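Case study.
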Amino acid sequence: MHAEHFPTYAELLERPGALRGTAWEVFGVDDELGTLNHLTPERVREAVRSVRRGVRVNLNLPLDAFDPPLIAHRGSIDHHVFGLNEFHRDERIDNLFTQASTQIDGLRHFGHPDHGFYNNVSGELLTAGEPALGIQRVAEAGIAGRGVLVDVGRHRAASGRPIDQDSNEQIPTSDIDDALDRQGVSLRPGDILLIRFGWLEHIRRPGAQRTNPLVSPGLAQQEATAAWLWDRRVAMVAADNIALEAWPATESTLTTRAERDGMLGRSSHSGMLHRILIPLLGLTIGELWDLDALADECAHTGFYDFLVTGEPLNVVGGVGSPANSLAIL
Ligand code: UVW
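After joint prediction, the assembly is written out as follows.
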């Protein structure tokens, strides 16, 4: 449910009776969808008006796109096709890491070390088969809305400042604003923002060396990034890189009190923007979205908005899912 007055990020920092900097209860005391609540029926109807030619563009990489996997603890799928007789085929996929390829990360994925999980849901409930904050909530609601592609990679190259794809360059929101201006498109409340940094294109060039440990440019690890996304009432944000934000995270102002006080050891998650976006703001995010063909279509027509859909696997208590996303232009 929408509050009558939708709070700005600055207001989230001083809501009476609410935990500072969280959006908890903004969409309801028991809410488990977060900013996906911005996808109202009116906005979905409006999004359909962005379909001009009826061209469909797949935004998903194959499930086994990365073998060996990009992130070491995520394995590669093991696909078995078998038949009960010569004229029948069935199958089984073992070792499916839901976040190994094009993915949606749900609200279970990250908690904040100082504050916990979205809407104050206890971490003890976040186990397999338990529904709290599970990806099945997103599957039940479905994702559909006005997608807007912002091609920051091409914008930066055209401006003579190409992104260093072999670095964890922190991309500020001013680059997104500039790219949107160049493209002649504005964001509206409830949009699904797709950010193309150009990283996937870079790593899948023939002969490209994948750095080890993995490095990718992405959103800057600053509170200002979270404020920018919240204040535009983005329903969801996805990108063509490994973590949406720059990876690995840099030592940033987002390091938590628990880490500063030594209650929690530093880890690869220290300083991550994930810790604000997912648990504090309830923002569902997408990573490794294949936006290259979409970018070519948009550059060709000059229209950067379209209908976009996504349907995660309906796994009760799921943390994330292959995105199953589609743009219709
Ligand atoms: C990283 O941690 C790199 O990304 P995620 O866990 O969100 O896939």
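Observations recorded in class. DSSP finds ten helices and 13 strands in the chain. Residues 71, 99, 105, 242-243, 247, 274, 287 surround acetylphosphate (CB under 6 Å). We will return to this complex in the next lecture.
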